[in-house]
Amino acid sequence: MRIVRASIFSFILVAFACFLTSCDSPGYGTVLYQILRKLKFRVVEISAAYPARLDRCEVLFLQALDKAPTEKEVRDIQDFVNTGGTLIVAGNTKVLDGLFSAFGLELQELTARLEFSERIIEAPLFPEHPVDDLRTKTDFVIETIGREVAVLYGRADDATIVTLRDGDGRAYFIASDYLFSRSGLRHRGNAAFLYNLMSTLPRNARIGLADRRYYTLETKPPDPFVAFVFRTPGGLGAIYICLTFFLFLVLRGRRFGKPLDAQETNRRLSAEYVYAMTALYQKGNTRPAVLRQIRERFKADLGARWRVNPNLETVPFLEELALRGGVDEDGELRHLMADLDASVNISETRLLDIARRVEAYRETAKIRRTKLTVGRSL
Question: Considering the entire predicted model, what is its pTM?
Answer without folding.
Answer: 0.54
